[in-house]
């Protein structure tokens, strides 16, 4: 089934000029960009986005990191986009990620892990709506 998922190219990747390398991995695995923008998150936006993690020990440093430099927020579309994106990213901790995944190859640490991807249809819908108005999503085949 054709799905949409939400993706972030995170500060550690943007600052190291890895946007193109990461998009190459995503696009070559059948994920098409249907919306994209570069933004510098403010604290309120970052805290709202990661509200489910509030209270965890990694929450504050995560927020500081996410506002430390610009990010690319984007919507990816493709067959089973949510699952495909998660497979191409690899697991959260780059030390545990399979070789050939974005996180294994590019991420610096479990926090500075280069990319975010929605983990379910419900999160994808929430996360897309958090950053994009419906009319900002482009129709693609
Ligand atoms: P993400 O997939 O964006 O979802 C939550 C983020 O919190 C995660 O990627 C990491 O950037 C960060 N994170 C998750 N677990 C840890 C952890 N144990 N230590 C530090 N950062 C974490």
Layout of SSEs?
Elements: E1 2-9, H1 11-15, H2 19-28, E2 32-39, H3 43-49, H4 59-66, E3 71-79, H5 81-89, H6 102-106, E4 115-117, H7 121-131
Antiparallel strand pairs: 1-3, 1-4, 2-3
Summarize the structure.
This is Nucleoside diphosphate kinase. This protein has 141 residues and is an alpha+beta fold.
Global geometry: globular
| Termini Cα gap | 13 Å
The main sheet comes to: 4 strands, antiparallel
Classify the helix fraction into a percent range: 25-40%
- The gyration radius over C-alpha positions equals 14 Å
- Can you list the ligands bound to this structure? adenosine-3',5'-cyclic-monophosphate
Number of DSSP strand runs: 4
Number of helices: 7
The amount of beta strand, in percent, is: 15-25%
Mean model confidence by pLDDT: 98
Order of strands, main sheet, comes to 2-3-1-4
User: Could you name the ranges where pLDDT drops below 50 across 5 or more consecutive residues?
Assistant: none
Description of the molecule:
The chain has 141 residues and is α+β, with helices and mostly antiparallel strands. The protein has 7 helices and 4 strands. Strands 2-3-1-4 form a 4-stranded antiparallel beta sheet, sandwiched between helices. The longest helix has 11 residues. The protein is globular. The chain starts with a strand and ends in a 10-residue tail after the last helix. 33% of the residues are buried. The mean pLDDT is 98. The site of adenosine-3',5'-cyclic-monophosphate has 8 residues, from loops. Its cofactor is Mg(2+).
């Amino acid at each position: 089934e054709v799905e949409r998922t939400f993706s972030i190219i995170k500060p550690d990747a943007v600052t190291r000029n890895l946007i193109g390398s990461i998009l190459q991995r995503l696009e070559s695995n059948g994920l098409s960009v249907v919306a994209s923008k570069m933004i510098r998150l403010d604290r309120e936006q970052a805290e709202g986005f990661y509200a489910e993690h509030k209270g965890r020990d990694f929450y504050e440093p995560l927020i500081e990191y996410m506002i430390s430099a610009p990010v690319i927020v984007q919507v990816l579309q493709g067959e089973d986009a949510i699952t495909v994106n998660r497979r191409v990213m690899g697991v959260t901790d780059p030390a545990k990620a399979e070789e050939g995944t974005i996180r294994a190859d590019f991420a610096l640490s479990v926090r500075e892990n280069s990319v975010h991807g929605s983990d379910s249809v419900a999160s994808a819908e929430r996360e897309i709506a958090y950053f994009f108005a419906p009319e900002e999503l482009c129709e693609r085949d």
